[in-house]
Specification:
Low-confidence stretches: none
Distance between the termini: 39 Å
Helix content: 40-55%
Strand content: 15-25%
Number of domains: 2
Largest sheet: 6 strands, parallel
CATH superfamily of the largest domain: NAD(P)-binding Rossmann-like Domain
Structural class: alpha/beta
Shape: globular
CATH class of the largest domain: Alpha Beta
Radius of gyration: 21 Å
Number of strands: 10
Order of helices and strands: EHEHEHEHEHEHHEHHEEEHH
Number of helices: 11
Mean pLDDT: 83
Length: 253
């Protein structure tokens, strides 16, 4: 699988505990360059075995000098996975001051901490107790769904899974319907939902759904399918018009 789109993106992970290790593995799997900051030299030594794109900084990530050593100024995202909420809040605040464009993601242990993290600029927070409670209860309530999600989200060797494909500015597919684009027929990708610019979702969009700028297609497929989708979505309007006419001619015969 190719994740070349992420090869130039730096992610900083503060905290090399169990949660941090999982985050690092996922980022490495998807081709990101990762810098890990922790006070424990033994923890950092274990991290270096996770991939050649993993770098380490030994020190207290709550100090600006250490954060700057971690390439935070040029980073795409910061993951705050320290063991206590107060540290994660302070880290988010410091990081936002150093890099105002940074995307910040953090764990939180309670609702109060989630609110504070969002106030200081965290893009998304994950409440560990809520996430774990939801997951374990669904093992009984919806066991087949829970196991399916575990398989595609937590499998270490992924051949297929969820994909997110952005419809960016200038994309020639803007204004086209899914029926005309024939995305599933041409790529095999299943479109599960579309995230709109206002953060609303359209689930199981019909063939009459018309793409808009800043839409995000949430799909199920392989990484090769992602490349096929991008090639189709970004092909010239004339190329797609010609293909549509040929298909119409064939069906009309």
């Amino acid at each position: 699988m190719s994740y070349s789109d992420n090869s130039g993106s730096i992610c900083v992970v503060c905290g090399a505990g169990e949660t941090g290790i999982f985050v690092i593995k996922e980022l490495v799997l998807h081709g990101f360059t990762v810098t890990v900051v922790d006070l424990d030299p033994d923890a950092l030594e274990r991290v270096t075995d996770l991939g050649e794109n993993v770098g380490t900084v030994l020190g207290n990530c709550l100090t600006d000098s250490i954060l700057k050593k971690s390439d935070l100024i040029d980073a795409h995202a910061l993951f705050c996975v320290l063991p206590d909420d107060r540290s994660n809040v302070f880290l988010s605040l410091s990081a936002r001051r150093i890099n105002p464009e940074l995307e910040i993601y953090s764990v939180a242990s309670d609702i109060s901490a989630e609110r504070k993290l969002k106030l200081v600029g965290a893009r998304r927070t994950v409440n560990q107790d809520t996430a774990e409670g939801f997951r374990i209860s669904n093992e009984m309530i919806r066991p087949n769904v829970a196991r399916f999600l575990d398989r595609i989200v937590f499998a270490r060797e992924k051949t297929e899974g969820y994909l997110s494909i952005e419809i960016g500015k200038g994309c020639p597919s803007v204004g086209w319907t899914l029926k005309k684009l024939q995305l599933h027929g041409n790529t095999g990708v299943v479109i599960i939902a579309v995230r709109r610019r206002d953060d609303s979702y359209v689930y199981s969009p019909s063939g009459d759904f018309r793409l808009s700028e800043d839409d995000s297609l949430i799909c199920f497929g392989t990484e090769d399918d992602r490349e096929s989708m991008k090639n189709l979505l970004w092909s010239s309007k004339q190329d797609r018009t010609d293909r549509w006419r040929r298909l119409r001619d064939i069906l009309g015969k």
